[in-house]
Amino acid sequence: MHESSLTTIGVYGWTLETFLDARRRAGVTRLLDVRQRRGVRGPEYAWANSKRLQAALAEAGIEYRHHPELAPTTELRHVQYREDDRLGVGKRSRTELAPEYRHRYTAEILDVADLDSVAEEVAGTTATLLCVERDPEACHRSLIAERLEAEYGVKVTHLRP
Fold first, then answer.
1. Whether 57 contacts 64, CB under 8 Å
2. Which residues contact 72 (CB under 8 A, 6 or more apart)?
3. Spatial contact of 149 and 115, defined as CB atoms under 8 Å apart
4. How far apart are the first and last CA of the chain?
5. C-alpha distances in angstroms, 114 versus 13, 23, 88, 132, 148?
6. What tens digit of pLDDT does each residue of 125-161 get?
7. What is the pTM of this model?
8. E-assigned strands of 4-139?
9. pLDDT (tens digit, 9 = 90+) per residue, 77-127?
10. What is d(CA 156, CA 7) in angstroms, rounded to the nearest whole number?
11. C-alpha–C-alpha distance, residues 137 and 148, integer Å
């Protein structure tokens, strides 16, 4: 396998312009969208809704691929929402994943996903994992990145606004 590097990025905290600039500076040529629902509420983040984002990426010369098999299920998202409610934090202010969510996401999604094919997509390029949360510690993309780093030697960098 060729040298592989992977960045991760969320939607929150970026504008389309700063998002694309971060991608350009990191040398990203392929974006792997790991969201279940590829839309974001509110006009501030309308640029990240799937069709608009794909058009902007195409114009910037960045390949787009959706990986719904890596997205958390609705049930898993509700596990995290319950913990957020218990802690009194909102999705946009969350700083970490609930232990139950981490465990279940790993067992139910990561352990059964075909990460060989994802690693092949990342091989020899600079790709990025996209989800919504600003901080990787608060998002399942960090769990995917950790697994790719541990099992495939992919170098990971988390991009933040």
1. yes
2. 36, 80, 101, 105, 109, 140
3. no
4. 31
5. 31, 26, 35, 22, 11
6. 999 999 999 999 999 999 999 999 999 999 999 999 9
7. 0.94
8. 5-9, 30-33, 63-66, 126-130
9. 999 999 999 999 988 889 999 999 999 999 999 999 999 999 999 998 999
10. 6
11. 16
